[in-house]
Amino acid sequence: MPVQKLDFVDRMRGLAILAVIAVHYAQMFASPTLKIIGATGQVGVQLFFVASAFTLCLSADQRAGEAHGVRNFYIRRYFRIAPLYYLGIVAYAALYISAGKGSSYTAGNILANVFFVHGVIPSANNSIVPGGWTIGAEMLFYLIFPALYWAVERSWRRFGGAALAAWLGLALLVALGWHFGYRLETGRWIANNQFPYTVFIAQFSVFMIGIVYYLAAWRGDMLAPHRLRDGLLAAAGFGLCSWVIVADVHPLYGVLPTFAGIASVFLANWLRGQSAAGASGGGWLVGIGKVSFSLYVLHFMLVWQPSAWVIHWFEGDVMDEWLIALPLFVIDVVLLYWAGRITLRYIETPANNLARALIRRLDKPKEIPAS
Predict the structure, then answer these.
(1) Acyltransferase domain location, by residue (predicted)?
(2) Which of 43, 255, 296, 329 places its Cα 20 to 30 Å from the Cα of 175?
């Protein structure tokens, strides 16, 4: 597959991580306006999920017919996530425990994160590695992906667009069922960024949207890029998400991930249209996207510590906060990018190579001893 045709996926990841960094960065300012500007960045998580589902589908098709494909899929996914995430566990434990804020670092919570079951344990879900809830949701998606993609892809080949519409309908029913079921059970709406919002079932529709987008737009011809249409629909979708977040519309948080997933598809298609037209071909955003996982794990250390100290020097002076906001954000991104290059070289790439070596070893035919 030509690299340029797929660079839109790295650009998706680049935009996603910039949005996620922005939301946590903006939390450090006293200015309510800066906080509001950054708040919408939380939908970068759903952009990540759509990109993840798309690339997993692409990889599954490229490796179709591989011996022990499901086993190898789990090996690759584990070594893709675990080494850097384990570094995050150690680093954040050291930071918070040394600062006297380590009450959540119990043996149970740490082990839940080590074994990636923290996505179903409220006390462990987001308390060991900041933002770790997304990894919990992602790992549960990995768990079901081989069977899920097999079912969706097979039904699509047999029934075409009607099958994809049915799967989207199922995903929407799951989202609405969780949204209204929680309301009926507790008498409360799902709150933003709380455990019921972060669990896999609340995000399932986003992953399904990514799978359907891959089959409809990449393997099929149901959503050819149209830059004006895609740009307007992406802007409208993210605008709706921004309104929900900024206006704090409690009755809609349960379906906010679905809104963000749909908007992410049109943004992806807009970026795909640019790639097809030769409007990209690398560049800084693709570079950021390639190290986006490292940036996700590392960025809290920078924006919640050194950057926060700098921001607090200007706290209370709105004009000064506005003057430093953009330059300091750019500095943060540059520093994180180079830190990400280091972890990519010394952690992520060796781990991926180790996964390939393990798969080769397991696939090597066993010698039959001579009788």
Answers:
(1) 7-335
(2) 296
d(CA 279, CA 234): 18
Statement: residue 208 has pLDDT above 70? yes
Residue whose entry in the numeric block shows the structure tokens 């519409």: 165
Q: What is the Rg, in whole angstroms, of the alpha carbon atoms belonging to the chain?
A: 21
- Alpha carbons within 13 angstroms on the beta-carbon side of residue 17 total 28
Angle, CA of 290, 292 and 294, to the nearest 5° = 110
The reply to whether 114 falls in a domain is no
Domain membership flag for residue 127: no
User: What mean pLDDT do residues 204-232 have?
Assistant: 96
Query: pLDDT tens digits for 97-144?
Result: 999 999 999 999 999 999 999 999 999 999 999 999 999 999 999 999
Contact, 149 vs 142, CB < 8 A? no
pLDDT of residue 138: 98
pLDDT, tens only, 45-69: 999 999 999 999 999 999 998 999 9
Distance of alpha carbon 54 from alpha carbon 58, whole angstroms: 6
Residue 81 maps to a domain: no
- Contact call for residues 16 and 295 (beta carbons, < 8 A): no
Q: Helices 292-303 and 69-98 meet at what angle, rounded to 10?
A: 10
Contact 38, 23 (CB under 8 A): yes
Given a cut of 90, whether residue 366 has pLDDT beyond it is: no
Rounded distance between C-alpha atoms, residue 55 and residue 192, angstroms: 28
Mean pLDDT of 243-263: 97
Q: Decide if 230 is inside a domain.
A: yes
Q: At what angle do helices 349-363 and 69-98 cross, to 10 degrees?
A: 150
**Whole-model pTM?**
0.95
First-to-last CA distance in the chain?
48
Neighbouring C-beta atoms of residue 102, cutoff 10 Å = 14
| Identity at 139, one-letter amino acid code | M
What mean pLDDT, rounded, does the chain reach? 94
Considering the chain, what percentage of its residues have pLDDT values greater than 90?
A: 87
Domain holding 160, by residue range, is 3-65+141-343
- What total of structural domains would you count in the chain? 1
Residue with tokens 């180079």: 338
Q: Positive or negative CA dihedral for 17, 18, 23, 29?
A: positive
Cα separation of 23 and 21, whole Å? 6
